Please model this.
Amino acid sequence: MRGENRARQWISELSDRIGVARWAALAVTPALLAEVDQHAAAVRDILVFGVEGAGTVAAVVLLTSYARGLLEIEPEWTPASWIGVRLMAVCQLAHLHDTRPLSNA
Model:
């Protein structure tokens, strides 16, 4: 539970770094919404099919680990960059699934 709380806090901070303006743009820009949805599907598939035991781990924990890995590779990012859109997808998945494991549904 403690790890889940830390992961949830980290995702919340990441969401804040993405910024209110970018989240607002998501609501009114169909192309951005479609791009985030595509990234979310790709991330979900990578984790569900590529991580042994993923079905037993809280999604927020798994997604936090994935996002941290992205940021190790690309620490300098902007919300409009490929990494920024990928991170938006991670945040959405984390909020959607929270402590439930990710599923391919």
